[in-house]
Amino acid sequence: MMMHGLILMAAGMGTVVLFLLIMVLVMQATGAWFVRHADRFAPAPESRSRLERIRPDESAAIATAVAAVVAFRKR
Asked: What is the pTM of this model?
């Protein structure tokens, strides 16, 4: 009974190790492919700062939330 448990444990751990090894190899191959073919992809758009992305109607909500936090911390 104990031997069957050890065999099952070894088979399970072997399966996990094999899966992880295959996953690492596939990830490395994919990374190498993307590095080699980087010119096919468009460059990332320039990111705007957080303040530029805030819509005017959001600024009132943000100011209210900041005021609530400040008031809560003063208590």
From this structure: 0.51
